[in-house]
Predict the structure of GST N-terminal domain-containing protein.
Amino acid sequence: MAAQLEPSIILYDLACTKHVSFSPVVWRIRLMLNYKNIPYKTIFLEFPDIEPTLKNLGLVPGEASKYTVPAIQHVPTNTYIMDSLPIAQFLESTYPDPPLPLTSDLGREIETKGRGVLGKAIYSSVMPREVRILSPRSQEYFRRTREAALGHRLEDLLDGDNEERVWDGVSDAMGAIGELMRTHKADGPFVLGARPSYTDFFIAGSLQSIRVVDEGVFQRMIKYPGYGEIYEACLPYLERKD
């Protein structure tokens, strides 16, 4: 058996009881690491441990930010970086082969619209189910912080027809975003055609996160055109989950 390469990257990820990655923002970086074949090691953190751990590493959030994963240590230079976009920019400049386009006009349009539309569906369907795959410590933290922002119980999002009304409200927009994903389908399975871009990892990471939390919500998402095709095209880079 070939010796395992020493990790170039230490990836700080969010822990869950399934012992696999499930954070959509961390998945964007994990997909990038897998695509570029960069050796890495994962350290999973519980929700209450993120801030003290990253603070001890010397990381400082921006003015409008907070301590959050993903965070990485670049082992060769002992560089620490937090947040998915700065990490992606660092990885692309440090490991340019194979290249991964980080921005495009089409990609920006998909990501901007996706945050607004997918955010509503994830908010209503995924967040109240996410608490079920957390450890007791993280459950308490997650429920306390989210319910304070909501002003009601997480489960209220699923009561009655609340969830269905949200999906009805975003359905047309989700279909339209899916069609944008297929703009270059004649050239290949990815958003820009034959090769992946960061936008593909934005999409596939979100879908993988949903799938870990709840298979039913994932199946509902990929019924829209475009979503399933992008997810399937990214499957080789979704294989490593820990």
Summary: The beta strands are 9-14, 40-45, 71-74, 79-82. The chain has ten helices and four strands. The chain has a mean pLDDT of 94. Residues 105-125 form the longest helix (21 residues).
